[in-house]
Structure to design on (803 residues):
């Protein structure tokens, strides 16, 4: 099998997908977090500022999901097909909530009526919360494995997906995004809204640290297969240690009111959590709870080497490009939010 | 209703609804580049005003296009898992390329287009407009390539069998430039130019008739008319090329388009008609031997008919009548658009363009024509290739997700129907509102962040 820098191509693609989904979680994570916190802001001006803080960037952030979906389809079609058809209702609701999130942001400012704006505020916040929870539910079920038979068909029920561990991961994801979103917003605001957000940052951080601790404990106790690799290869313990240090650093930076560094830390934590799961699963991606022989791995679930090579070339050209214009847009809209005639 | 039919309805419904928007974005993108380019060159305020106005409309259209487009990307996996595994090696790469090369470009720069007026220089803003327009076209390239590969597979081989069977790539460029890619892509892009330019024509015709924003409306009308005329003429060419390609590579589909059953017969070309499957007869207005002439440039060569294919490998009789109608409607609209734009150009040349109230009235409603043509064109392409989802390789009925249950699809179909109905009503309402509001007063209503604090609603 062909290798690049000692890693085979399916492993490389696994890394690319991990990177893209981490990018999505970091970028859209703060949008979703800001959305989840939206109803905490009571005044119209506050809500507008919060909305315009993500206004120019949320669409670009969502691109990472589109790239991730395409990358999964292209590189691991078996994984893409199996997970989407197995978690059918979950993904359908997810897609519809993405629509509601988008149109809430777009349509809210188009009418001045109070009821109109309240309605879209609620729709925006509820859809953001549900999106975060749905992402967490998917992750929780991927960590545990799902009932996949030899034809890649899901044999479980909808209710099976709402098991306690998956729900725990869902709430943790929401907590992470709320903290991440609060930190993002605090960087973009001034005066009274800023003061309010400093309190929200503290509370959401406490919420996240609590959930992080509970989920870590639950994983240690109930998900032995995710821990196995860390036991096998001791130096892998660097990852959980780094994650915990990064979480600690968020609280430290917040205490010093260095929100930009707190934001970098929470972004790092987000990526770390995905890496922790990825390391624990590899080389499996979808675990079959019916029979370990039916696990879908990076090898039996991937496209051909030829296709992966083409895709890796795409990624090598495309990802830096996307990085450049993502940076360009963030740079253009850096600093505190100022409302003008083009704002939402 | 079974799972397959419901899934097909759901896919058809969600893609048809989605397809209202991307052609408008692509077409408007080009018009915007021209408008803003004119602004930079002349520095005239009317061009700035029209650019700002159409960017707002663009944002609305683009927003719904994105929201409904993401659904499509994931619907392959949710409902068509077997298909997804079968084509992933090939189709997936085109889809991923769309995300990374096209969608990222347009979404990234859209923020600057919308909110960057006061933050970047006019040149950088213009650059962003070009990037957004290019991005939307790049999207079309990859999506149409992916779809064309399903119509005329190339650069692949089949590996494995049963549930493990899949198409794997052997030659990337052969896959990208499969026999129908270029013809279909050009047809789609030009169709999008028509959709976008006729929207601009419609709104400006409305303003002229209402005697509002006269100067802006007339200038905008002329820009859009130029695009529309060039596009409608080019569409004749790409349309002919596409039909030629279908005749060569998907003969059963072309036979269905034309309702042509008898392989030994010289083929007539119908302008309008009604197919009768039992009698294999079409009642309608025809050009005798027209199809033979168009495809073979003579009056004597027969055209392969539906009877050359086993019943299980060609569209059902009901499908034949549907695509016969949709295909002919598309062609008729194409001709009407050429006539309409040439007539307007002639009157422009005569200097009487804006005096013809009746013509402007037609232009107000003509916005629907390219939309309908784009829709029915795709219905023809997609229904005409049944029963295949990948032509000659994978049947639609074999492509479905194995674990899917009827009630699951019913649930999602009802959900999409309700949400899209709401979306469409809101879209029309907001579009109408923006149009009524018009392009003027771009510089008023700047809100200083400290003033108006007592007012609960800030504009």
């Amino acid at each position: 099998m062909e290798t690049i820098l000692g890693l085979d191509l399916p492993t490389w693609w696994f890394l690319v997908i991990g990177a893209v989904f981490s990018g999505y979680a970091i970028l859209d994570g703060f949008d979703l977090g800001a959305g989840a916190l939206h109803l905490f802001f009571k005044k119209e001006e506050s809500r507008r500022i919060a909305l315009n803080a993500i206004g120019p960037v949320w669409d670009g952030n969502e691109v990472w999901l589109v790239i991730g979906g395409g990358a999964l389809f292209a590189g691991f079609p078996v994984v893409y097909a199996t997970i989407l058809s197995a978690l059918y209702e979950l993904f359908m609701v997810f897609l519809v909530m993405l629509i509601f999130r988008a149109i809430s942001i777009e349509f809210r400012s188009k009418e001045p009526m109070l009821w109109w704006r309240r309605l879209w505020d609620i729709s925006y916040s509820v859809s953001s919360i549900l999106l975060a929870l749905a992402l967490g539910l998917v992750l929780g079920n991927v960590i545990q494995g799902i009932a996949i038979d030899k034809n890649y068909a899901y044999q479980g029920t909808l209710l099976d997906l709402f098991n306690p561990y998956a729900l725990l991961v869902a709430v943790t994801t929401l907590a992470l995004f709320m903290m991440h979103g609060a930190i993002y917003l605090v960087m973009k605001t001034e005066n009274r809204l800023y003061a309010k957000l400093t309190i929200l940052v503290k509370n959401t951080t406490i919420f996240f640290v609590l959930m992080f601790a509970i989920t870590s404990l639950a994983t240690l106790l109930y998900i032995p297969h995710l821990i196995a690799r860390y036991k096998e290869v001791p130096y892998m313990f660097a990852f959980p240690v780094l994650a915990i240090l990064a979480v600690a650093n968020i609280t430290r930076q917040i205490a010093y009111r260095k929100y930009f560094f707190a934001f970098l830390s929470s972004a790092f934590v987000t990526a770390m959590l995905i890496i922790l799961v990825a390391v624990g699963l590899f080389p499996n991606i979808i675990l079959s709870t019916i029979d370990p022989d039916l696990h879908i791995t990076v090898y039996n679930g991937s496209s051909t080497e030829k296709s992966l090579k083409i895709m890796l070339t795409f990624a090598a050209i495309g990802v830096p490009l996307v990085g450049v214009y993502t940076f360009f847009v963030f740079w253009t809209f850096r600093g505190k939010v100022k409302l003008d005639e083009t704002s939402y | 209703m079974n799972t397959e039919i419901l899934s097909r309805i759901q896919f058809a419904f969600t893609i048809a609804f989605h397809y209202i928007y991307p052609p408008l974005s692509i077409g408007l993108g080009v018009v915007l580049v021209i408008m803003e380019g004119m602004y930079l060159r002349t520095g005239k305020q009317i061009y700035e005003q029209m650019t700002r106005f159409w960017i707002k409309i663009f944002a609305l259209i683009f927003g719904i296009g994105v929201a409904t487009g993401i659904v499509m990307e994931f619907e392959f996996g949710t409902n068509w898992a077997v298909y997804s595994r079968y084509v992933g090696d090939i189709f997936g790469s085109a889809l991923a390329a769309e995300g990374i090369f096209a969608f990222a470009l347009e979404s990234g720069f859209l923020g600057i287009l919308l909110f960057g007026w006061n933050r970047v220089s006019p040149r950088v803003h213009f650059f962003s407009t070009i990037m957004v327009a290019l991005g939307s076209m790049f999207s079309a390239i990859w999506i149409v390539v992916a779809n064309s590969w399903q119509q005329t597979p190339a650069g692949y081989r089949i590996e494995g069998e049963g549930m493990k069977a899949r198409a794997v790539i052997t030659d990337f460029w052969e896959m990208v430039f499969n026999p129908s890619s270029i013809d279909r892509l050009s047809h789609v892009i030009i169709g999008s130019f028509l959709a976008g330019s006729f929207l601009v024509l419609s709104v400006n015709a409305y303003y002229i008739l209402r005697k509002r924003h006269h100067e802006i409306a007339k200038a905008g009308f002329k820009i859009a008319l130029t695009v529309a005329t060039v596009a409608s003429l080019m569409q004749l060419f790409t349309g002919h090329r596409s039909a030629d390609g279908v005749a060569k590579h998907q003969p059963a589909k072309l036979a269905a388009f034309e309702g042509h059953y008898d392989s030994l017969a010289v083929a007539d070309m119908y302008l309008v008609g009604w197919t009768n499957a039992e009698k294999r007869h079409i009642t309608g207005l025809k050009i005798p031997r027209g199809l033979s002439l168009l495809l073979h440039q003579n009056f004597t060569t027969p055209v392969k008919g539906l009877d050359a294919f086993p019943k299980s490998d060609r569209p059902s009789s009901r499908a034949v009548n549907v695509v016969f109608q949709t295909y002919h409607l598309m062609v008729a609209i194409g001709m009407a658009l050429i006539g309409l734009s040439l007539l307007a150009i002639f009157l422009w040349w005569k200097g009487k363009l804006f005096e013809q109230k009746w013509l402007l009235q037609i232009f107000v409603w003509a916005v629907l024509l390219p939309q309908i043509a784009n829709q029915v064109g795709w219905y023809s392409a997609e229904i005409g290739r049944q029963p295949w989802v990948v032509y000659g390789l994978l049947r639609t009925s074999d492509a479905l997700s194995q674990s899917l249950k009827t009630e699951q699809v019913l649930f999602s179909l009802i959900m999409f129907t309700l949400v899209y109905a709401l979306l469409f009503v809101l879209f029309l309402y907001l579009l109408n509102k923006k149009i009524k509001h018009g392009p003027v007063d771009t510089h008023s209503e700047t809100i200083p962040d400290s003033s108006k604090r007592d007012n609960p609603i800030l504009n």
In short: The longest strand of chain A covers residues 284-286. The longest helix of chain A spans residues 191-222. Chain A has a mean pLDDT of 90. Chain A touches chain B through 77 residues (CB under 8 Å).
